[in-house]
Amino acid sequence: MNTTNKLIPVVYGAFTMTAIYIMPVLNLINVFCCAGILLGGFTGVYIYKKQLIKSGSTLNAKDGGMIGLLSGFLSAIIVSVFGVMISLFSQSNPVLEFLNTLQDAGITIPDEMNVHLESISNDFNQKGYSLTFILISFISNIIIFPLFGFIGALIGVSVLNKNTSRQN
Question: How many other C-beta atoms can be found within 10 angstroms of the C-beta atom of residue 31?
Answer without folding.
Answer: 9
